[in-house]
Specification:
3 strands, alpha+beta
Length: about 210
């Protein structure tokens, strides 16, 4: 994977957004994996995998000895520290920075754009999902219709929303010929502005609802 444009476009994009050592990047290096030993795993377990207001359900043929063993086991877990307030997110660098990485023997470009979205409630998340559907969440989305079907700039492009530590990550990814990278990036910005200035209505809105 580390030899492919798709890997590096997403890795560099998320590292710029969240920081190199953030769990939200979901990437690491081979030497880091090789360096993990038992002590590191135990240290992580003691720091992060502690009792967190768990409710334990027990069923089946159990006796007093079994309950005592379980009680002793859970009593060894230290309760997690009480957390108050709302976690804040501060981007490590300018989010509009353009990052490029050259890969030898590759004529294909993998483009990745990402933005952090503050956590939304479970009642509002369907609205965010519907907005993503219009942008690039299905084959008939604006990204696919404009960039692939009408202009022929990309082999495929889309957008998705995933969970992050303090909210959500909204990401656009696409593959294209190197000569089309700049015009594709500019066209994406125009689509984003158009989605704001000309929100979906009529057939586009009804089609997305049915989808």
């Amino acid at each position: 994977k580390m030899q492919t444009p798709g890997y590096w476009s997403q890795r560099l994009c998320l590292e710029a957004l969240y920081g190199v050592h953030s769990a939200d990047t979901n990437f690491t290096d081979i030497e880091d994996l090789a360096a993990i030993g038992q002590n590191e795993l135990l240290s992580y377990k003691q720091k992060n995998l502690v009792g967190r207001n768990a409710t334990v359900f027990i069923s089946g043929d159990y006796d007093h000895k079994t309950l005592s063993l379980l009680d002793n086991c859970f009593s060894q877990l230290k309760p997690s520290e009480t957390r108050t307030g709302v976690a804040t997110y501060t981007p490590p660098i300018n989010q509009t920075e353009l990052i490029k990485r050259h890969l030898p023997h590759s004529n294909q470009i993998s483009l990745c754009m990402a933005k952090h979205i503050n956590r939304v409630s479970h009642l509002d998340f369907p609205k965010l999902s519907l907005l993503n559907l219009f942008l690039g969440g299905c084959f008939g989305s604006r990204l696919m219709q404009d960039l692939r079907e009408e202009k022929g700039l990309t082999y495929g492009i889309g957008s998705n929303i995933s969970l992050s530590g303090n909210g959500h990550t909204w990401m656009i990814t696409g593959e294209m010929n190197g000569d089309n990278a700049d015009i594709t990036r500019d066209s994406i910005r125009e689509i984003l502005i158009g989605l704001w200035k000309n929100p979906p209505k009529g057939d586009e809105l009804e089609k997305a609802k049915r989808y």
